[in-house]
Automatic annotation (TrEMBL):
This is Branched-chain-amino-acid aminotransferase. It catalyses: L-valine + 2-oxoglutarate = 3-methyl-2-oxobutanoate + L-glutamate; L-leucine + 2-oxoglutarate = 4-methyl-2-oxopentanoate + L-glutamate; L-isoleucine + 2-oxoglutarate = (S)-3-methyl-2-oxopentanoate + L-glutamate. PANTHER family: BRANCHED-CHAIN-AMINO-ACID AMINOTRANSFERASE, SUBGROUP IIII AMINOTRANSFERASE. The keyword Phosphoprotein does not apply. Belongs to the class-IV pyridoxal-phosphate-dependent aminotransferase family. It comes from Marinospirillum celere.
Amino acid sequence: MTAFGTVFTPEMILSRYDGAQWSTPEIVPSDSITLHPGAHVLHYASTCFEGLKAFRHADGSINIFRMDRNIQRMAQSSRLLSLPAIDEKQLEQMIVEITGRFASEVPEPPGSLYIRPTHIGTEPAIGKAAAPSSTSLLYVLLSPVGDYFSGGSTALRLLLKEDGMRCAPHMGMIKSGGNYASSLPSMMEARAEVKADQVLYCPDGQVQETGAANFLLIDGNEIITRALDSTFLHGVTRDSVLTLARDLGMDVQERDLSIEELLERSAKPGTEATLSGTAAVLAPVGTLIYEGKEYTVGSGKPGPMTAKLRQMMNDIQWGRSEDTHGWLTQV
Ligand SMILES: *Cc1c(COP(=O)(O)O)cnc(C)c1O
């Protein structure tokens, strides 16, 4: 089995901003791009990306999930990094074109085609530490991926971290490269010291998110997650799962969740905790580690509500239930 995101289609689609306009998108080989070593992105991290998926339905059609949301978020990331403004309509056409071109490479469910739009500042100007890149490159890379849970769905161990942050607060809602590298040292330490799978950042004692996923607590009919603010990434999966939870009549609470309340609720036998993100949809959390102690969440095993909400998402994505919210775009 190959690791998630290591297999690519042989071609991708690309457009360049020359300081005045975007070039007509071109299909190019996906194994290389040429950048000046002084390119702005390589020195000053003017980069952002997106992650979304296309799914194969039983009728053979290929359908992209919530593309509009991901494009809007990429426009937001670009704006907040002072990268050239993307042309949202053009990016949509690029995604649809390249996905359609490789439609035959979209795996059957539970596999999918992972789509990775990337936007980087290309101006060769190392004097521009305090100024934006006037030129940029936008490309859409494709990676067919298999079942995220092929190794079985085991419940994750999370280290709760009150000190330190995933990224600077003003970078929270930007899906940008530097955020991931900068959170690696705390991640590696958590792995080595307490065998945690992920760090759950809790600045000021309030639950925020992990390195690349949002956090949800499910306690009976209640589903609790941090309200949107500028300090963390606003997941499309988070929004989708909360929408489906509302459809089920669940009590969706977007609000502060303290470590204290989290641990107290986790002690109840039926409680579930879960991470949300495009790769897994929902990944169950079984153990929380805080101040040297381990706390089991509910049964400590993947729970039924996590599985149910993931199944509801998958059913829409895979074309097995009606797309009542209009989330799919057929290519
Ligand atoms: C991508 C990402 C998420 C999840 O977003 P989705 O749109 O649900 O895939 C959450 N947190 C961080 C830090 C991320 O990078």
